[in-house]
User: What shape does this take?
Amino acid sequence: MNNKDLYNYILGIADNSLILGQRLGELCGHGPTLETDIAGTNISLDLIGQTRSYYQYAAKIQGEGKSEDDIAFLRLERDYKNVLLVEQPNTHFGYVMGRQYLFDVYHLLLMQGLANSADETLAAIAKKGIKEVSYHKRFSGDWVKRLGDGTEESNEKMQEAIDDLWTYTDELFDLTESDEKMISEGIGVDASAFKNQYYDEVTALLKEANLQVPEGKYFIRGGKKGVHSEHMGYLLADLQYMQRTYPNMEW
Amino acid sequence: MTQAQTAHIDPHLIPTLEEVSDPEIPVLTVLDLGVIREAVEQNGLIKIKLTPTYSGCPAMDVIGDDLTAAFAKQGKKVEVDLVLAPAWSTDWISEKGLRKMEEYGIARPLKESADKEALLGNKKLVKCTNCGSTNTHLVSQFGSTACKALFQCDDCQEPFDYFKCLK
Assistant: This one.
C-alpha cells in the first residue's frame, strides 16, 4: 500500500471537518440565540474532535515525526484539501444552516461507507462519527425547514442561501487520484456512488421546506485540488495566527 | 451490558479508579461512566485504555491527567491509551451512575427509540429531575456539554439537562 495515498485520502476527509469546525467556531458568542450559539459550538467541537483523530492517524502514516497540530496549523493554503462548500463565510444564520445541512447529508453518507472500510482506524473514527453527524443533520435540517417554511423574509433568505451554496455541492462527489486508489483497495468510499441518493434526500427536504430546488447546472470546484476561494486565506490567517506568531506555543 | 461485562479491569485498581471523576459531571466516577475499557498492571506499569464519550470531548484530556495523578500518589506510573472502537454507548453507564446522575439533576438517557421521539418533540417522555413529571419539553438539542440536551418541565417550570442516548 502507498502511504502517500492513504495520507492524502485521510486529509481529504479531515480537512472538511477542520475548516467547517473553524467556521462554526467563529460564531461562538455570536449565535442569534443562546441555544443556537451552543449548538454551533457543540457541532464545531464534534468536528474538531473527529479532525484530531484523523490527523493523529495521518501523522503516524506520514512517519515524519509530525504532530496533529503541525498538520492543522502549519500547512499552506494549497495543501488544504477541503471542498469549497465548507470554507464559505458565515453570511447569515440561514446561510450557516444551509451550508451545514448540505454538508451533513454528504458527511453522514460518507461516514456510513467509511464504517465498512478495510482500514480499521478509519472505520473506528467513522463509527464514532456517525452518531454525532446524524445529530448534526437533524439540527441543520430542522432549521432549513423552519426558515424555508417560515416568514416571507426567512424564506427569501433561505432560498438565496441555497441557490448560492448549491453551486458548491457537485464538488463533494469528485474523486482525486488518491481517492480512486483507496477505493480500489477497499479503504476509501466512492462518493460518486451515493450522489443520486444525496440529491434525492436534499431535494425532498427542500420541497418540504417550501424552497425551490435550484436547476442551475453551473458548479464551482477546486478545493479538493487545493484551489480555494478568496475566503480561505482569511480563514487560515485566523486559524494559524497563534502557531505562526509564536511557533511551538502550547496552552 | 454493564462495564464489568465488557471491560477488563484488575480488581485491585478499582479503589483508585473510583477516586477519578468526570470533570464535567463530578458525581460520576470514570467507572460509573464506563469510559475505562481496560486497566491492567504489568511489571509495575498500569496500562489504561480510555474511550471518549464524544470525539471532541475535552474531558478526556483531563481524565487522562487525573488518572496519572491518582496513581502517582501511590508511586505508580500510568500509560493512558485512547481507543475509539468499540464506540462508547450510554448503555455502559452503570445503574449506580444513572441514579447518581438523576440526583445531581441530569435526566437519565431513554432507550434509543424513545430518545428519538423525545428529541424530535413527538412525545413527552423525559422525566423532570425536580418533580418527576414527564410533562416536559425540549428547549435545545444541544446543551452545556456535547452529551446533553436542554429540557424544561411544564409543571414545575424547572429547566434541566437530559443525557442523550448514544448507541
Observations:
- Chain A has one domain: 3-245.
